[in-house]
Amino acid sequence: MKGLFKDIKYDLPAGLVVFLVALPLCLGIALASGAPLFSGIITGIVGGLVVSLLSGSALSVSGPAAGLTVIVLNAIQQIGSFEAFLLAVVLAGVIQIVLGVMKAGIIGHYFPSSVIKGMLAAIGLILVFKQIPHAFGYDKDSEGDFSFVQVDGENTFSELLNAINFLHPGAVIISTISLLIIIFWDKPFLKKYAIFRLVPAALVAVIAGVLINSYFEVFSPLLALKNDHLVSLPVSGSVEAFIGHFTFPNFQAISNPQVIITAFTIGIVASLESLLSVEATDKLDPFKRNTPTNQELIAQGAGNVVAGLLGGLPLTAVIVRSSANVNAGGRTKLSAFIHGLFLLISVVAFAGLLNKIPLACLAAVLLVVGYKLAKISLFKSMYKLGWSQFLPFVITVIAILLTDLLKGIGIGMAVSIFFILRNNYKQAYHFNEAGTPDKRQITIQLVEDVTFINKGAITLTLDKLPNDAKVVIDGSKSRFIDIDVLEIIHNFKETALLKGIQLELKGIPEFQGVAGH
After folding, report:
1. High-pLDDT (> 70) share of the chain, %
2. Start-to-end C-alpha separation, the chain
3. CA-to-CA distance for 105 and 103, rounded, in angstroms?
4. What percent of the chain has pLDDT over 90?
């Protein structure tokens, strides 16, 4: 127990910062999903209190995912009721647990580093683009809507123009002061004072935003932020009212085929998004710890079962909250648990107080998180690694910006696989040529592993060999030679005779062709 709390001085303030970031996102994602607002809060609480205990990730934070909003919105409409949809969430969790038991989490180890870094940079840019309107006081689009084409018909860039046209002076003042507080609070020359080390900058910025807006309400009403410009947490006047916010699944809907289809869709998509997020979070972890992916699938599945039973949205590991956790100095999974605890306490006891928080000061917090994820230095370092790393990276960034997380990752993966195939195509063998122009001696030394991917490169090379040359195809150093490649090499014996090539095979296994061919 002592070991659990050994990093409490880091995890407590980090958990508080993640709570402040998660609160509007939980509400915004629920709104964008066409679900009750309280369902987003339930999912955030379950992500903090349940998933963090079962997960093997030190810094990942789970909650409602922006990437699932379209799926959830369409599913609720197609299934016909929110209660029946909750059953699909429960079943999706069961599917994830089964995937974890079957060791399907291994897929998480096959995402290229360039694509993961592109995802982080893209999320950073999206945070900046999406939070600028909130910083300017244009809050028409809900928090948590991270897709390029928004639910209100606008897109990421048109929303920036709208923010300029509908600028709110009070919001600009609050977001600017909050941003300056966050930037200067973390300056090294201030860290020698205990208060700057112990109190998170985001909390100070939020308190300042509330105080400034309270001042505006009294002395300058035109600058004051109200209604949609503030956090909007459901307020429970009593224990009975609080319990009344919960919704329970309709188990009789198990016969509805749309429920089953939705369960599999959520189970697969949520698993992929969680694996991507924990992989990205591990890259941000200053201690470079690795998350056990199969355990993560089981933890996410258990979280979705509980969320569905209590009336929550489907959850995943979420990179926005996880990166905020890293930036705030979180050390262990205790910070994620604390953020869930704060969410629970807030809806039970402090909803009215939290509803005074301007979205403009929370935008300042997320702007800093976004900047740290998409620093110019990251683009420079990826460029120095060469085109095979930079192109998948930058295409992933652009694709995510213009579509959504999973589509962008898919496009980035396709580009990355192209470079992998191209490199394998080139590296099938070592080609050495000696002798005179009249009597050329050529050695083709096969590499350690020769797969069907190398088939094209070897075929072209053999076709271009000059007549009357002496050719040695050496596979003595190869650990594996694919049957397709063996067939090509042995078929080349006939071609060699016709071209007058003196062919010698070293360490090339015999090829037994299919009967009748």
Report:
1. 96
2. 69
3. 5
4. 59
Length of the chain: 517
| Nearby residues of 327 by Cβ (< 8 Å), 6 or more positions away | 17, 368, 369, 372
**Residues 379-395: what's their mean pLDDT?**
92
For residue 474, give the DSSP letter.
E
d(CA 405, CA 305): 24
Longest Cα separation, the chain: 98
Phi (first) and psi of residue 469, to 5 degrees: -85, 160
Closest CA to 216 of 229, 203, 201: 229
What pLDDT does residue 1 have? 44
**What is the Cα–Cα distance from 230 to 254, expressed in whole angstroms?**
39
What is the C-alpha to C-alpha distance for residues 89 and 46, in angstroms, rounded to an integer? 13
What pLDDT, in 10s, does the model give residues 220-267? 999 999 988 999 888 776 667 778 788 999 999 999 999 999 999 999
Q: 379 — alpha (psi -120 to 50), left (phi > 0) or beta?
A: alpha
Contact of 319 with 281, CB cutoff 8 Å? yes
Give the position of tokens 């998170």.
200
- Per-residue model confidence as pLDDT tens digits over 144-163: 677 787 777 788 888 888 88
Q: Where are the domains of the chain?
A: 30-375, 428-506
Does residue 170 sit in helix, strand or coil? helix
- This prediction's pTM: 0.80
Q: DSSP characters for 381-408?
A: HHHHT-HHHHHHHHHHHHHHHHS-HHHH
- Report the alpha-carbon distance of residue 49 to residue 56 in Å, rounded: 14
Q: Alpha-carbon Rg of the chain, whole angstroms?
A: 28
Rounded Cα–Cα distance for residues 375 and 127 (Å): 13
CATH number for the region 428-506 comes to 3.30.750.24
CB 329 within 8 A of CB 14: yes
Query: What span, in angstroms and rounded, lies between the C-alpha atoms of 316 and 325?
Result: 16
**Closest alpha carbon to 269 in 246, 249, 297, 245:** 297
Task: For 52-62, write each residue's pLDDT tens digit.
Answer: 999 999 999 99
Dihedral over Cα of 215, 221, 223, 225: its sign: positive
The CA–CA distances, whole Å, from 52 to 15, 63, 96, 494 equal: 12, 11, 16, 64
